[in-house]
């Protein structure tokens, strides 16, 4: 076993730190994240409010800290359904080939030309705003990338001798798929998932920004940036700190993805 | 006159010593063979001669070519040496030819670079070179793309390119390993005649003693980066000194103990029979349909086969002859479009609904040792899998049965918790055999199971298969491109070519009095050890 590369360790450290922030939010936060305080509107960062206050006097620091929960919740949960659906479709298509493959890939071809975010927006617009509907939209269109990756892996694996051996030992196809194909197709998918988490967090925030995500008083980074955008020249801190948090969490997952890809390639 | 003189050449990659203290001389017109198994340092040594190693390699010692110290040359002086004075050819011609460059241009690029030829003179010279390596109709093939050439033709084109500047030395690194036996023979003959005609000195690297003996007069035997023995080919083959050389020689198919001719008991039942088995790949396109063609590619064309209880049947043929297709059709991995398969007289569908009953009787083992085992299962898990899935023994007995099976294939019990990548190729192949035996089959189909193994490991695996066959009264189908191996292991042999069975008969009869011209050609191409041509 080779030592994990520094990139991977750094990425895990960053994401783990954000995880701690999310867990310890009630202890870290200095104020109630949704408490309005008209005594202290648009206060710059200082001793009383580390990151300043917004236009209704809410503490930006506490809102950023609580917002971590939403970001991680959206990111980690948002990729699960697309991954499960995409892996299943991709593995089955690649392993069996023939008309199953043709059907699945035509479905992918239809979805690919539309920009991902436009599709998500359209679906959320139809279903109505809210994080749950965002998850549904992701499940409907996010599986495509996973399906293509998993299919490519399955195409190679189905010809490999250990899969042939499993077939000639008389094992059933579902068993071979689950026990021999899936575990060996997993690594590129996990790498892709890391970049996908970043994307899902960003798009989640973008929905919040557009008013199609979580409802307004929620301490969600996208909403905070949207609200702060009106004051960007006078009170930059309202939009800046949630933005910075988002960049940092994104870098963390990106590093994990990159490091993991390198590590797996080294081991291969 | 000594052309190349190597002294104390040592190559290290970090802590790994790839070659250590290698010394030899090469005289003008001499052919030196370097023999060794994978990881013995033979290729590294060759590449070090031309300084073709990656930057991570540390090279010490001296390489003197025609009085010049190669290790001290500047990069531009080195360029004048490579290709011009020393030519090199490699194992896989396919990956060393640029797929987007015509054959003539590839051969011509050295001429243009080193001899400044161009235009008509260049074209003439290219044709002359291609003719010299006996490419028929060289004018036509000079305009061909690499993918249009067969493996043997590609290797000839590579040799033509290497000879373009009339080098003094040709370094050939496993030049025939990827080629079929008859093609290999052609390339070896070509190298021999080039040497005779032009006094070309040669370093010929191979794992195959038989091939080396056809070309070389002197031999280095390498192991773990060191030269263990050096001498003339005849001396080493007849009177080896080092233990390892003896083992290497004893593992050569020529020296393996011959299978005693034996008669099967009268009335031994037919465990497996196939009639008129045909497999077609690809589908029939519209244009095939319009012009009345069957379409696709016929990989197996009406093959008949019978296998009696306790019999070992060899199937031999070159790549693309359909031997693996036949084996895979027998276990249901390829769907046969026509023909029937019978097991003990009963028709069976190897891919049909009752396949499990049939497959428990007919098991297959595969070519690539590392690929045949599921990479994330330990040895024990791999062997236990069929026992568990098919409930062959009670769950409490699984561990004990796995231990038994491992002992049967001579695997040390402490390997049980290893993963495939922690095993050697031979060990992986033993696990695959144990896994197949777990089903207690009556028929074992072995598809090129030793061709990816080094000769000493090959000998051990063949020995194991022979023993298991005798002990268990197994019927076996043994598929190989290597006639030498087939001869040592099988009772009966089938020769395949282009999807058809061209000859079948008892081993002794087919080898001693082949009826078909193609069989004769195959037998003549076996790279024998000198002095071992007499049939055993």
Give a structural overview.
The complex is a heterodimer of chains A (268) and B (536). Chain A is an all-alpha fold and 268 residues long. Chain A has helices spanning 6-23, 25-28, 60-78, 80-96, 98-111, 116-127, 131-141, 143-157, 161-168, 173-209, 221-228, 237-267. Chain B is an alpha/beta fold and 536 residues long. Chain B has 21 helices and 20 strands. In chain B, helix 4 (103-115) runs parallel beside helix 7 (151-163), helix 11 packs across helix 18 (455-472) and helix 16 (398-408) crosses helix 17. The two termini of chain B are 41 Å apart. The model of chain B has no long low-confidence stretch (mean pLDDT 88). Chain A binds chain B through residues 160-162, 164-171, 175, 179-180, 183-184, and chain B through 328, 331-333, 355-356, 359-360, 363-368, 371-376, 385-386, 389-390, 432, 435-436, 439.
In short:
With 268 residues, chain A is an all-alpha fold. Chain A is 72% helix and 0% strand.
Which sequence of strands runs across the widest sheet of chain B? 6-7-8-3-9-10
The CATH superfamily label of chain A reads MetI-like
Span between N and C termini of chain A? Answer: 11 Å
CATH structural fold name of chain A = MetI-like fold
- Let me know the average pLDDT of chain A: 88
Order of helices and strands of chain A: HHHHHHHHHHHH
Identify the notable features of this structure and list them briefly.
heterodimer, A: 268 residues, mainly alpha, MetI-like fold, 0% strand, B: 536 residues, alpha/beta, Rossmann fold, 4 domains, 6-stranded mixed β-sheet, 21 helices, 20 strands, 37% helix, globular
